[in-house]
Task: inverse folding
């Protein structure tokens, strides 16, 4: 259950730098590569000749060459040539709409005709020299909605990430959730608390004292299909918290692009964008390493939760106030999937 | 096919010493831990909040804390508290009857109301300073009844354990099987034979000559649901065999608790209890190591036998005299399972 | 979909030298061993006593002893003895027709009554001192017909084996395919080309210059059920190519026996027979190592192709001129399978 007419992050440019990449997105097996003039392309990973995966091939003169018998596939999904063959009658393979933007490759697994690049989520921090970004990728065996739940309810930090970003005060500060159109916002503010280890490191990284009380905030924003961007930060207490001037705080945006592979597995692109010391590459590396370790702590929990839910499909889960972010996000997803289904049905009825 | 209203060994105390243990018993996913006052508890391994496995959590003040969002579960299966929540309406999870006795944790996977601790199999050698015990645990992919067959027909020692406890004379001494109520006893006596390597080691461990003829015995006792306790030993020949005075023999009890995980996998708790040199820890370790190696020799055979049987479900196996112990044990198990089914049906009819 | 009334290569003698071998052929689990007088035998890998795999046992006095409880199985599939038992009433297990010839063990997985050893494919180079042979075995997760396709269309060498035997001129020389009875022959001749690395090594191995133009040939012969024998070679250009006198060429026969394990997995026996420098064991080893590396390059392609086809069972593949060898081979296999089915149906109707 995921919208297919939407932009998902498929991969990062480094993943297609050396050779084509085979990756399944929303149940579709795709091959990603750079075609003519270095433009990214995404096709069905299936050679029309004998069914070999095109991702085992290579790129030559902008064409994707099948590594089995040399069929040369064009970016449109039509065979351009093959040694010793006339290819005009070869069946086309599916071409997916794909865009490179903000340092990511985005793909639209559904109807390519509806794929408007303007719909790609705007990332104000990307391509902006005042900001630095570092991130990574995890492959996790769970429904993408379990990861959305995870990120829209940060009380889990107290338990899953107790030694880094968790602290008791998260539990004690009730979050507030609101829906604005297709966006869900859950926010939590903690006042006059001591920063946990990760944030003490960030304060020091920004030249601020790490042993004084701070105000801390978490503002989670879900937008379809499965992006969760979280404004997080701490400011020395009494300077206005989230609204404190830059010299009193360390803040950043946690970036989560969750791409369904199948109904029960995901490609999870995680990262952090910050607007302090953006030129400090060592700090970027330190933050990335710390975040990678922290986010790795969620994997076993999510996979084992998924297994439990598969064993008990009928069981109703609780929907507490802390779950409101996930619950509202799922409602939006259900509405979008239903609308897709109705479009598809209408198309069939009118045919 | 296994009785659920019965006491099975679930784990040993060391397995829950550091943190909760998730283990599936008779198809039920359970979490085992020490709750209030160190008393052992067993619950369904499913947090009523979002379905996370409780076994990934920790114990605090006798409560099992979910490692995802901090729900505090009581030993009764009712949520005791959760940060920022009223928990009165939370659905309960299943609680299993559980007892700690004789150095094992015992669980009753069926109807807890019928779980009488007095029904736990009495182990006369446990908690007895005249005896020493050492053992281990194997996870094996086979129906628990294949392991009962294995242990109730020790002719396999000649083939599977040729270099340790097997000897040709086992084959030549026909076993006798009898049924006494719910107990099946298969015994075999060999007179005036040379002891095989494992028993020569045991003779030496007890300060006896290992190069003279012995009388050897094996008395296997099956009791439901799946315990097989085997009196084994050798005595210098001519002193009465099984009935010989202690100074002429080395004897012990092979302990086998076979706990079904699924229909085709088991947790196999094996060990040996002996009443000679009980204070000799080095001897306990030597015996344990030898036995672990010997019992490990059965694993491949049992798992490959299981695969063969799954491929040929209709095929009738032979039931020879040497198989009588397993055959009679299965009859008792069938009767017990049928009785459980009838109780369940009666309950439904009367509802 | 494979003929069962046919001779397949099951294993090589070294695989049964130490102990019995369990191997599945055409869906049948078999045990191979040397029985009385060292004659090879093949039985169902299932002990009639308790279903243990006989391949875990050992051979004694020409009988296969079950490693679980010592049942002694004869080569006919009838139990010969068992300690302490009368075995006359024991059910027989299935015996497969098996022959040792040309350095291979051949098995007939179908009706043993039809298994005529004269039907074993004649290998003119085997048991011939003018020839040397080296080979190996790969276990691959694909339909055996994908491997036949692979070997009957060597254009893939240009792509899969670019660094060893591939060369652009293969693509440019259209193959010719013809059918002669149950044999399919695809041949390709390239004139006045430079030899690729593998063939330069072979030229040097035969004491010939490797830096002059050569004529190169590939003559692939499929015979049922799944043998592909390929005459390959190079001759210094202008001496007659395939027909050149021996002193001007290096040639050999690529040997491929493809034995279905299941519908989607195979045992692939590959090798090379050559009639130059047959006494040079170091050359045999060098060729074997090179060929093993080259043929290993096909594995990922075939397994990933298989996965793609399983995902898209309805999709029609192309049948180009280069595919004619595989297409014709499949037609023969379909005809043979249909004939087997009709025989089986007739047998049932007449019963």
Result:
């Amino acid at each position: 259950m995921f919208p297919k007419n939407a932009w998902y992050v498929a991969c990062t440019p480094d993943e297609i730098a050396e050779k084509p990449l085979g990756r399944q997105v929303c149940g579709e097996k795709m091959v990603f590569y750079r075609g003519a003039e270095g433009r990214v392309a995404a096709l069905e990973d299936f050679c029309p000749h004998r069914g070999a995966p095109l991702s085992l091939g290579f790129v030559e003169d902008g064409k994707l060459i099948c590594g089995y018998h040399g069929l040369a596939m064009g970016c449109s999904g039509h065979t351009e040539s093959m040694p010793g063959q006339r290819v005009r009658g070869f069946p086309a393979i599916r071409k997916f709409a794909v865009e490179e933007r903000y340092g990511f490759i985005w793909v639209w697994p559904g109807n390519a005709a509806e794929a408007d690049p303007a719909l790609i989520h705007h990332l104000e921090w990307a391509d902006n020299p005042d900001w630095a970004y570092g991130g990574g990728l995890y492959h996790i065996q769970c429904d993408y909605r379990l990861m959305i739940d995870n990120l829209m309810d940060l009380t889990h930090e107290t338990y899953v990430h107790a030694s880094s970003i968790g602290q008791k005060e998260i539990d004690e500060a009730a979050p507030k959730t609101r829906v604005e159109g297709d966006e869900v916002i859950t926010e939590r503010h903690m006042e006059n608390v001591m920063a946990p280890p990760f944030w003490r490191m960030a304060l020091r990284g920004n030249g601020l004292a790490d042993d004084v009380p701070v105000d801390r905030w978490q503002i989670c924003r879900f937008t379809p299909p499965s992006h969760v961007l979280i404004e997080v930060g701490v400011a020395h207490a009494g300077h206005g918290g989230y609204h404190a001037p830059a010299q009193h705080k360390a803040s950043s945006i946690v970036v989560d692009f969750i791409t369904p592979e199948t109904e029960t597995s995901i490609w999870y692109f995680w990262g952090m964008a910050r607007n302090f010391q953006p030129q400090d590459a060592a700090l970027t590396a330190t933050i990335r390493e710390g975040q990678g370790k922290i986010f790795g702590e969620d994997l076993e929990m999510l996979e084992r939760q998924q297994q439990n839910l598969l064993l008990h499909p009928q069981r109703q889960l609780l929907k507490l106030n802390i779950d409101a972010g996930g619950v509202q996000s799922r409602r939006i997803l259900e509405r979008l999937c239903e609308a897709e289904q109705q479009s598809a049905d209408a198309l069939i009825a009118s045919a």
Remarks:
- The mean pLDDT of chain B is 95.
